[in-house]
Amino acid sequence: MSVQRRLLPNISALAAFEAVARLGSFTAAAQELDLTQGAVSRQISALEDQFGRRLFERDSRNVRLSTAGEIYAEAVRSALGQLRDAALGLMSNQHGGILNLAILPTFGTRWLMPMIPDFVENNPDITINFVTRVGRFDFARERLDAAIHYGLPDWPEADSTLLVRETVAPVVSPAFLADRAIATPADIGRLPLLHMATRPGAWTEWFEHQGLSAPTGPGMQFEQFGTAAQACMAGLGVALLPLLLIAGELQRGQLVPAPGQPMQSRSAYYLVVPHDKRGHPPVASFRDWLLGHVEKDPAVLAW
């Protein structure tokens, strides 16, 4: 067998290996692949013979990956995923391409998603697959082409293009405001504060922006702005929220500003593209379209 052939195993054997590695069972893998257990076992044995390495440790009850098998399983899982994505692209979109995009939960839902129909209309040959990610991740491992990220433009080995800067302000429900004496920013410090898990220092930064010391003490914590906004509307406390993401609630009067000056956050929203995806046509089309929307939308720029 040539070296090249030895390094390119049979795809059926790789599928069997991935299934056993993921399910931890030859029987379960055989059922998933619609094969006999013996056929799966032969596929794994062929791989082990081909590489001269044991991929699984077997005993009478269990099967588990060897050290070499664990390393190989991660690579095989990624490679098979890329092949599936490529096949899906060929079948679903013969003339365009696929964009695998990571978005932030609330920002993606409230800011980006209402604009997506325009992108689809103007780019009918591009299919976008959305996943939710908060914080940094490995683009290659996650098989993602781009991300909308909140933070600083310092993502390693990637280009960060500014989309929107963020202004935050304290808000409350109308009933909460009517029932309490809230006349100055200092009064807010004596009220229940709602905190974002992803912005642990936000309230401290805001109080310093008002020339005040931040209060100490616990408060309710939320993972997503949408949940925090709902809690605020329910009268549970004062929330420090991005004005861009609660424009609807403010316009409908469900939330109202509390005393104090709005503050521009140090971080902002960026479109992040890894260097190896710069030339990917769907990425370039999406970036140009998105920046065009940002530039011509006065409501976005106003924030």
From TrEMBL:
SUPFAM superfamilies: Periplasmic binding protein-like II, Winged helix' DNA-binding domain. Transmembrane segments: none annotated. Residues 9-66 form the HTH lysR-type domain. Signal peptide: none annotated. It comes from the Bacteria. GO terms for biological process: DNA-templated transcription. Keywords: DNA-binding, Transcription, Transcription regulation. The keyword Ribosomal protein does not apply. GO terms for molecular function: DNA-binding transcription factor activity; sequence-specific DNA binding. InterPro entries: LysR-type_TF_proteobact-type, LysR_HTH_N, LysR_subst-bd, WH-like_DNA-bd_sf, WH_DNA-bd_sf. The keyword Ligase does not apply. It holds the Pfam family HTH_1. Belongs to the LysR transcriptional regulatory family. This is LysR family transcriptional regulator. The lineage of its organism: Bacteria, Pseudomonadati, Pseudomonadota, Alphaproteobacteria, Hyphomicrobiales.
